[in-house]
Specification:
The structure is a single chain. Helices cover 38% and strands 21% of the residues. It is globular. Helix 1 runs antiparallel to helix 2 (34-50), helix 12 (425-435) packs across helix 13 (448-456) and helix 17 (500-506) crosses helix 18 (514-524). The protein has five domains: 3-54, Orthogonal Bundle (Helix Hairpins); 74-309, DNA ligase/mRNA capping enzyme (D-amino Acid Aminotransferase, Chain A, domain 1, 2-Layer Sandwich), CATH 3.30.470.30; 316-398 and 405-417, OB fold (Dihydrolipoamide Acetyltransferase, E2P); 425-570, DNA polymerase, domain 1 (Orthogonal Bundle); 591-660, Rossmann fold (3-Layer(aba) Sandwich), CATH 3.40.50. Strand 4 (118-125) and strand 5 (128-134) form a beta hairpin. By secondary structure, the protein is of the alpha+beta class. 33% of the residues are buried.
């Protein structure tokens, strides 16, 4: 390869990998599969091997992926939490063995599954769990102690413990928990997690540990980072010792030859579908700690360990039919029904076909043989048509909703086809689930199962019916009882006093999330003012676009919406107005962005103080930002503020500005 071509491609790959690193590690929202990422990284490694002058300490090939983030306090790792070098073939595994044997000719290996989760460190003093942290960039991670405390399988106290023990483990979400959460997210019309790894990472990095607790995370411990008072000489001994202390440890196999290692890798691959969690490969480690010391590490990887990554498994199967599901927002989602096929350890017979455009682009017909795989090894997806068996046109969407028979429409610049009937039965349950959810009307005890019972029994047919329920009727439902019924009615009564922005969000207006609902209600203050507002008046709200404004106007223009609002009022829903934002003060017209940990206030408290003095807050830094309020461990927002020349102030300076005023 020509040097200039290599340089250009290396720069392109570096930018791509940095972007996808951020999506994967920091945002827990990847856009490409692990395999696609690995192939990009391998391409960059090959270029840097051919042209060493193109390599640098800042290259993605030399750095552990994540960053310490801004949500949590930083934790400096005394023992670096290294990443692993990847192999994709038995030849590469044998090459790893040759390098090891050149230094330690009698090396013995331990092979174990590579759990696909979030790597963490857990510290114990005199047997008591005192601190837990994420890997971060390998040197500095995030303190997530409170969230790790919610994981039942992680010991909080251990008997016969050493004076100090630091272990490394992988936090994961079981496949059953993952599928339950995805089903709930889809019912609520939310964007579902892409795979268990990102679900686990997003759950562990929640500021509210109660949310983490509900996600039912688990952990496998696979390494001792530091230990005082106990001598251990091999990795297999360390795993046995950790197991004796009560830690859940990964299964492992000791191998004396590289042929045994390759056999162990194949056996793990065959049984991966039997595991409760997702794995993306196998890990090979030198067993003897003294030999590990001799082998050492690169800037990023230990030379005594290697990860073997399994390629995504793809299978061909016949598309038997296409079903149409109707979601909470009325969107029609096509689901492919296949001849059952064993894929990545489980039998697959269904997969989403996304939307009308996807079917057209892939030229999909019922009866075709299609290629499928599991995205993230979990969610089945169609990759392509392997064999077209039909002379007919590709599948076309129905013109009427399969649930209620109403006309369906596809709006401009949207891929989704939607049912136009807001009373469509298929949408009702999902609407109700959203209406009672934590961020909406927050009716504790009214979960999907209870709502479904209420619907099936005919006790509710709309939002309004919730407020007309009686304890005696609820108690008659299966698995409810008198006490549960009374508690539920109490929660329903409490929700009547919810602030108006919660109600507006609960109504499920398209394009209107929590933040938009709050902005709308801060501007208009009452539901009647919103109902009577024009598109132009709604568009004038800072943060609202034309599509959002039109969506609000269209929703409140419907006769059934006005009947619904009147009925809710008659049922006692107070629609409590928000406090009007200050129209005067030293910060009037000024926009603040908050980052880092402040000395005496939470960021929420600081935001309220700014708003009370006429200012407003934003989540991102731009040229329109007037001030960045920065605390300890401020991250990328501070960097961007400095680059744009935005004024950066401390908490003390903020208080001084208010005090001087």
């Amino acid at each position: 390869m020509d040097f200039n071509v290599a340089k250009s491609r290396a720069e392109e790959l570096t930018a791509l990998l940095n972007y996808h690193n951020d999506r994967y590690y920091n945002q827990d929202d990847p856009e490409i599969s692990d395999y696609e990422y690995d192939m990009l990284l391998r391409e960059l490694e090959n270029i840097e091997a051919e042209f060493p002058e193109l390599s640098s300490a800042q290259s993605p090939t030399q750095r552990v992926g994540g960053s310490k983030g801004e949500k949590f306090s930083p934790v400096e790792h005394k023992v670096v939490m290294e990443s692993l070098h990847d192999s994709f073939s038995s030849d590469e595994v044998r090459d790893f063995d040759r390098k090891v044997k050149a230094v330690a000719s009698n090396a013995q290996y331990v092979v174990e599954p590579k759990i696909d989760g979030l790597s963490v460190s857990c510290e114990y003093r005199n047997g008591v769990f005192v601190r837990g942290s994420t890997r971060g960039d390998g040197t500095v991670g995030e303190d997530v102690t409170e969230n790790l405390m919610t994981i039942k399988s992680l010991p909080k106290r251990i008997d016969n413990a050493p004076q100090f023990l630091e272990v490394r483990g992988e936090v994961y979400m079981s496949l059953n928990s993952f599928l339950d959460i995805v089903a709930e997210q889809e019912n609520n019309g939310e964007k579902p997690f892409k795979n268990p790894r990102n679900a686990a990472a997003g759950s562990l990095r929640q500021k509210d540990s109660k949310i983490t607790a509900k996600r039912k995370l688990d952990i496998f411990v696979f390494n001792i980072q530091q230990i005082e008072g106990v001598e251990i000489s091999t990795h297999s001994q360390s795993l046995d010792y950790l197991k004796s202390l009560g830690f859940p440890v990964t299964s492992h196999r000791i191998c004396n030859t590289i042929d045994e290692v390759i056999t162990a890798i194949d056996e793990i691959d065959k049984t991966r579908g039997e595991l409760p969690c997702d794995i993306d490969g196998a890990v090979i480690k030198v067993n003897d700690f003294a030999q590990r010391e001799l082998l050492g590490s690169t800037a990023k990887f230990p030379k005594w360990a290697e990860a073997y990554k399994y390629p995504p498994e793809e299978k061909e199967t016949e598309l038997l039919d296409i079903e149409i599901n109707v979601g909470r927002t009325g969107a029609l989602t096509p689901v492919g029904i296949f001849s059952p096929v064993l894929l990545a350890g489980t039998t697959v017979s269904r997969a989403t076909l996304h939307n009308e455009d996807f079917i057209r682009e892939k030229n999909i017909h019922i009866g075709d043989v299609v290629v499928i795989r599991k995205a993230g090894e979990i969610i089945p997806e169609v990759l392509s048509v392997a064999q077209c068996r039909s002379l007919q046109d590709p599948y076309t969407f129905p013109e009427n909703c399969p649930s209620c028979g109403s006309k369906v429409v596809r709006e401009r610049d949207e891929a989704a086809v939607r049912c136009t009937n807001s009373d469509c039965p298929a949408q009702l349950l999902r609407h109700l689930i959203h209406f009672v959810s934590r961020d909406a009307m927050d009716i504790d005890g009214l979960g999907p199962a209870v709502l479904e019972q209420l619907l099936n029994s005919g006790l509710i047919k709309s939002f309004v019916d919730i407020y007309n329920l009686r304890a005696i009727d609820v108690a008659a439902l299966e698995r409810m009882g008198e006490k549960s019924a009374v508690n539920l009615i109490t929660a329903i009564e409490k929700s009547k006093s919810a602030e108006i922005n919660r109600l507006v969000y609960a109504l499920g207006i398209r394009h209107i999330g929590q933040k938009a609902a709050k902005l709308l209600c801060e501007h208009f203050l009452s539901i009647d003012a919103i109902i009577n507002a024009s598109v132009e008046e709604i568009s004038a709200i800072d943060g609202f676009g034309e599509i959002m404004a039109q969506s609000v106007y269209d929703y409140f223009s419907l006769e059934q919406t006005r009947i619904l609002i009147d009925s809710l009022k008659a049922s006692g829903v107070k629609m409590t107005p928000l406090e009007k934002k200050s129209s005067e003060g030293i910060f009037l017209g000024k926009t603040f962005v908050l980052t880092g940990t402040l000395p005496t206030m939470t960021r929420s408290q600081a935001s309220k103080l700014i708003e009370a003095n006429g200012g407003k807050t934003s989540s991102s830094v731009s040229k329109k930002t007037d001030f960045v309020l920065a605390g300890e461990d401020a991250g990328s927002k501070l960097t961007k503020a400095n680059a744009l020349g935005v004024t950066v102030i401390s908490e003390e300076e903020l208080l001084s500005m208010i005090g001087n005023n």
